Amino acid sequence: MLSLHDKIVAITGASGGIGEATARLLAQRGAAVVLAARRSERIDAIAQDIRQEGGRAVTCVVDVTRAGDLQRLVSTTIDQYGRIDVLVNNAGIAPISPLAELDTEGWSAMIDVNLRGMLNGVAAALPVFREQGSGHLVSIVSVAGLSVSPSMAVYAATKNAVRTVHEGLRTESTDGVVRTTAISPGYVRTDLADSMADPHIREQTRKNMDAMGIPPAAVARAVAFAIEQPDDVEIGEINVRPTVQA
What residue stretches are annotated with the Ketoreductase domain (predicted)? Predict the structure, then answer.
């Protein structure tokens, strides 16, 4: 395994959960990180913690639904550290509900954040990766796309779309310049349930997270594992779920 000390990593959705855990772990292992999220106070506090512990961290306020924000994230990373080695597309929401409820606003929101947000990241980072001659795109997907449960059809569809884009980018990148990794977590103890409008679904999801959820650090370790591989090794997909999850 290679060290992370020479890696420059930008992470969306870094204000909590998997994104925060990933930023903290990668910084502990020597990477320089750029924390991106909408909540400026939160990412600033996390970055300060990282710096106080001897790590390298800066922040960038980003709404992934805005293409210009992702362009600014990439340019900020390059301005601060000279390049961008890895973009971790982690931002995501899950206002899930049965299709019969016709929550078209929730559907659109998931498409905008989960899919379009990832594509905005691709559009911002890919030209830079090509110019640099190297780069790594990591996206947090979901096991929900592997086995679709009731109320999760549109959420799973957005995650499967991300998985498909990853595979397409992989097949277009066999020149060895760009690596791609899709990481699909199962139940993780995060605040994802906060984006669920249906109170019954939200409560059941929180109960499942409390009963079987793994810590965000478990997914962060998978991200680190994929990133630290030698340049000629690509970890295409990782599923990370609780051992007790069906």
Answer: 7-190
